[in-house]
Inverse folding.
C-alpha cells in the first residue's frame, strides 16, 4: 500500500492506497484543489480488503478543525441504504416476507387506503406516503412513535403499488418500523448488531453521545443564478402543498448539524458515518453475502438486492427518470436530460446502494466485488451525484479495468 500525505486548500489529506488506484486518489486530491471540497473521506474495498482509505481537509469551515481518520458526518439519504441492509438481513433470514401485507407485521398501518400495501412496496418507494400533508410538529423527526403514528393515519397519495415516488425522509419510518416490529429492536440497535458491529463500521443510525465530538459540520450548497431550474425545483417553490415541498420542508426539524438529529434514529436521512463505514457495511454484499466467515445474506438474497425493482420516466417526487431496487438506488443515467442539474448516479449494472443529498454515496457491486463509501461536509448541487462524487466512482471503476459508462452503467 502507498502512503498519502498531501496539502490542500482546507488542510491536509492522508491515508493509504493500492497503486492500482492512484488515479482515484489523484481525483480525491483534485476535488479539494479545483472542485471546492472542504472535508471528505473515501474508502474502497475489493474482495473485502481495503484498497483505498483516504481522508482530509477541514471538519468545520469556520474553525481550524482538521478532518481526521475517525471524523464522522451526516450522510443524508445514504442512510437509506443502511436501513435497507437491515431489512434485507431479516428478509434473508426468512423473518420478513417481501410479498406479505404490511398489516401482518404492523396492523395499524393497514388503514386509510393502505390496506393492500406490501413489504415490497415499502422498499421500492411505491407505497404512496412520500410525505405528510398536515404540518409535522416541531421536533417531530426526533419522535419515532409520533412519526409512525402520523404514517398510520396518512392517506396514500396514490394507490399503493401503482406508481413510485421517492420517499425522502419517510423511508426511515416506513421500512424502519418494519425492522423494529420484526426484530424486536429499534432500527439503530438492530442495524448495529446485524450489520455494523460485525464489520467494525463507523456508521450509526442514532449516534451515541460519546462520538459527537467527531462529527463534522455540514456546509449547505449555495445556489447560483446559473443553476438549471428543473421540474422538481419549480414544483418545490411553486406549490407549498406539492409532494416536493412537503417532502423537503414538512419533516419535523431534521437538522444535519444538530445533536438531537444525530441521536434520533432517522433512518431516511440521519445516519452518521464516514467513507470507511459505508464501504464496510456494503463489503459483505459485494462479496456474495459472506465476509470473514460470517454470512450476512444468502447468495440469492444478494442477487435480489442487485435487481431493479421499479423504473419510471417520471418519479412522483423527484420528477426525473429513476431506477430503484428494493431499498436501494440503481444506476441512473440522466446525463442527456435537459434542464436538470446533476440528476445521475452511474454505477455498475449489478451495483446497489444509495446517494445522499449533497453528494455522499455508499454502494456494493457484486460483479466488481467492490464496496465504496464517500462522505463530505460541503454539499453540492443537483438531485443525485455531483462531479465530485461521480468523479470518484468513475475513477474507482477505471482502476478495476472497466472501460466505459456510455450505456448508462459501467462495463468492462
Amino acid at each position: 500500500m502507498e502512503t498519502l500525505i498531501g496539502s490542500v486548500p482546507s488542510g491536509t489529506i492522508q491515508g493509504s492506497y493500492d497503486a492500482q488506484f492512484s488515479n482515484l486518489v489523484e481525483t480525491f486530491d483534485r476535488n479539494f484543489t479545483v472542485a471546492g471540497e472542504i472535508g471528505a473521506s473515501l474508502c474502497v474495498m475489493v474482495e473485502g480488503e481495503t484498497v483505498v482509505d483516504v481522508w482530509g481537509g477541514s471538519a468545520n469551515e469556520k474553525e481550524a478543525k482538521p478532518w481526521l481518520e475517525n471524523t464522522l458526518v451526516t450522510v443524508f439519504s445514504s442512510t437509506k441504504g443502511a436501513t435497507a441492509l437491515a431489512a434485507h438481513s431479516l428478509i434473508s433470514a426468512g423473518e420478513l416476507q417481501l410479498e406479505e401485507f404490511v398489516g401482518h407485521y404492523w396492523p395499524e398501518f393497514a388503514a386509510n387506503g393502505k390496506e393492500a400495501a406490501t413489504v415490497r412496496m415499502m422498499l421500492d418507494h411505491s407505497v404512496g406516503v412520500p410525505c405528510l400533508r398536515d404540518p409535522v410538529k416541531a421536533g417531530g423527526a426526533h419522535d419515532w412513535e409520533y412519526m409512525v403514528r402520523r404514517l398510520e393515519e396518512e392517506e396514500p397519495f396514490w394507490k399503493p403499488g401503482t406508481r413510485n415516488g421517492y420517499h425522502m425522509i419517510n423511508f426511515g419510518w416506513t421500512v424502519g418500523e418494519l425492522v423494529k416490529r420484526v426484530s424486536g429492536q429499534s432500527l439503530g440497535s438492530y442495524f448495529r448488531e446485524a450489520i455494523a458491529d460485525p464489520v467494525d463500521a463507523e456508521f450509526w443510525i442514532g449516534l451515541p453521545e460519546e462520538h459527537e465530538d467527531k462529527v463534522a459540520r455540514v456546509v449547505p450548497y449555495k445556489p447560483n443564478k446559473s443553476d438549471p431550474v428543473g421540474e422538481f425545483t419549480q414544483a418545490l417553490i411553486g406549490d407549498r402543498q406539492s409532494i416536493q415541498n412537503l417532502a423537503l420542508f414538512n419533516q419535523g426539524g431534521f437538522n444535519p448539524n444538530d445533536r438531537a438529529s444525530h441521536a434520533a434514529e432517522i433512518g431516511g436521512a440521519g445516519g452518521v458515518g464516514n467513507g470507511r463505514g459505508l464501504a464496510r457495511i456494503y463489503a459483505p454484499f459485494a462479496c456474495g453475502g459472506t465476509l470473514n466467515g460470517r454470512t450476512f445474506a444468502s447468495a440469492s438474497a444478494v442477487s435480489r438486492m442487485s435487481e431493479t425493482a421499479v423504473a419510471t420516466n417520471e418519479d412522483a417526487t423527484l420528477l426525473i427518470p429513476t431506477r430503484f431496487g428494493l431499498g436501494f438506488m440503481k444506476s441512473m443515467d440522466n446525463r442527456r436530460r435537459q434542464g436538470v442539474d446533476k440528476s445521475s448516479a452511474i454505477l455498475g449494472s449489478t451495483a446497489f446502494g444509495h446517494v445522499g443529498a449533497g453528494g455522499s454515496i455508499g454502494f456494493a457491486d457484486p460483479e466488481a466485488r467492490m464496496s465504496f463509501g464517500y462522505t463530505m461536509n460541503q454539499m453540492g448541487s443537483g438531485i443525485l451525484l455531483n462531479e465530485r462524487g461521480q468523479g470518484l466512482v468513475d475513477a474507482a471503476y477505471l482502476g478495476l479495468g472497466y472501460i466505459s459508462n456510455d450505456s448508462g452503467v459501467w462495463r468492462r
